[in-house]
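Quick illustration, no need to memorize.
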Amino acid sequence: MLDQLTSRLASSPLPLWVLASVLAYLAGTSLAWHLRRRGSWRLPYDQWLVEVARFLFYLGVPYLALGGWPRQPYQGLLTPGDVGLVGPGSAWPASRWLEAAGTGLGLGLVALLVLLVAWNQANRPAESTLNYPSRPWWLLLVDGLYLEAHWAFYRGALIITLGDQYAGVFAGLGLVFVEWATNPFWREGWRQPSEAASVWLRAALVLLSALLFLLTRNLWVCLGVHWLLTLALWRPQRQQLPDPVQSARV
């Protein structure tokens, strides 16, 4: 078993892609934290710079791993099925889609009830009130797409590297928490009542996404449940420009 794992690590560049992604995340969040501490944000330019960087990181890396430039589409290190990018066809008939959607809705409803009970308990003391920061609804959808694509890349890469679906999914889940632990914005968020709700919800969503992927192997179901729970719980506010500090927490 150990010899097989060592062989996979030596023969596949996927672990290097994963390591490069983690290091890029660490460098990006550390730079953003440094600029914020120095008061060097220049609005609105830095807002859009952060959004461009997030787009390239969260979607660009999975795209290249799946076989984007300079490779031919879908001829990369991962296949669409490895990350749950499935479509209608013989492997996914209507009955399987309905089963996956039903599983997603059922587990999503259970998660919603648990989160609502936890929210109610957290806000029961008069001096303790958790609130979400103001975010427009469309940005919540963009954030969900970025996060699910990022998590799916780690899951798929580690499933292939480790040769085991369960080990790969939970190793990917652990790697996401390692990333967040290195993010100074994320650590600060747990200490601030105005930010604790959003990081708490995101931690719950990554666990839910991992469980849904194990049950359905369908990224679209994971993304749909992610969006529904986020919109149900976040109560998005009026539209405004993205906040670079909030974006750096993702």
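The radius of gyration is 19 Å.
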